[in-house]
Amino acid sequence: MKKLKRFTFLLYFSLVSISYIQAQKAQNPVLYADVPDLSMIRVGKVYYMSSTTMHMNPGVPIMKSTDLVNWKIVSYAYDTLGNSDELTLSNGKWDYGRGSWASSLRYHNGIYYVSTFSGTTGKTYIYSTKNIEKGPWKCVSFKPSLHDHSLFFEDDGRVYMVYGAGKIILVELNADLSAIKIGSKPKVIIENASLPAGANTGLPSEGSQLFKINGKYYIFNITWPKNGMRTVVIHRSDNLTGPYEGRVALQDLGVAQGGLINTPEGKWFSYLFRDFGSVGRIPYLVPVNWEEGWPVLGDNGKVPAVLDLPASKGLIPGIVASDEFNRTKAEPLLPLVWQWNHNPDPKNWSVNKRPGYLRITTSRIDTNILLARNTLTQRTIGPVSSGTISMDIANMKSGDRAGLMLLQRKYGWVGVKNDNGKRKVVMVSDQKGTVEGEEVPDGQQTVFLKAHCDFKNRTDKGYFFYSFDGKTWKSIGEPLQMSYTLPHFIGYRFGLFNYAVENTGGYVDFDYFRIETK
Fold first, then answer.
1. Which listed residue, of 9, 278, 425, 469, carries a Cα 20 to 30 Å from 103's Cα?
2. Where is the Beta-xylosidase C-terminal Concanavalin A-like domain (predicted)?
3. CATH homologous superfamily for the domain 28-310
4. What is the rounded distance in angstroms from the CA atom of residue 95 to the CA atom of residue 90?
């Protein structure tokens, strides 16, 4: 009996010890938020990563880490791509799911480069700076738009891009990166990059990332065999122009698209992402070992749940953050966690007109919240997250709608509508229309609103609440069934908005936005 008790105690102690050790290590996904199309570099002991945010501005976020797990947004490559109707939500046009796509981040001869491309403008963009965290960024652009390209600096000083879908193409650029080199003809270097995953291709290989390691060239691609899952394919060659041999590098959980990074201590990882429902495409790290000159991804071909890296401290405040809208003269108007839905209209928002508040003023008539200018957004994060706002509605005009939304094509929002002076709390969704709640009491100037997201096990439910005192909360409307849709191609976001359907010039003042993970 004593031996049994001792065995039970030792087993319990071992399990507790294992749990404790795992709690001190990083878990996959390393970021439970929409941070897709990763490109990563290490400069000394510091890592930088770029990602895709498409129609959000400023665009191409740059994140910084010292351990590959805990990241903070430190910069953006651009403020806006241009001023077309699609980019400014004008004349009924929009740019959802477009804007700028997968970027390529590089460091060469003391200069940082991040390149991207846009189906909206039809251009390829290359941004450069000596200070990746503070800028300024210089921009050159040219046509055509090179799909899912990888910027590559060769040892002899020549510069190339590898790009394409299915067929992988190499092209040389001018030394100043301003255009495709005159006389340089695009060359197909891999005829069918999907082939290692089988002939029955659904999504042709794309998302190219090119690396030169120990004298060999490696090209990472993602492909998606029919009736299969997203798959990592790697091709290798002794020469930049080929010939290339390829193999499947990872086929597990649909984790794919990315590249390679190593630590100062010599450990290798592959950074990849996974489609994970309405929260978006979330980053994973997979350990890499080298065998006969090939990077071998995963633990026996599997994506591990626990990594030999420091534990995450959470995504707040590096990726998302609360904001009381208090600003000193030395601080930027908006922290980097915020992005505008499309190009903002700078004349009609302010954090200075009423110190301690974000003011959004209507300047035109809109028929749809997805067309509203100056919707200010942050990512939602998993497994659960809530956003809460306090909003002063005293200066709304008839026809104004203002509040807090969960932004995607299948959106939902809770807020206040003012019709002929009657102010009423409403919950509106793309799926169910409008659910009316209480009238705002006479003399009530402040309304509190909350949106809660449940992404656990891909539940993908959104819940909405309101309060007149910030303490007692009432639910409103049915839960929103959130869904990741390709027309928007981005995970759900919290959005602060005010738009008009009758009169312009009304405004609301947001006192705070607070995010929680419970």
1. 278
2. 323-516
3. Glycosyl hydrolase domain; family 43 (2.115.10.20)
4. 10
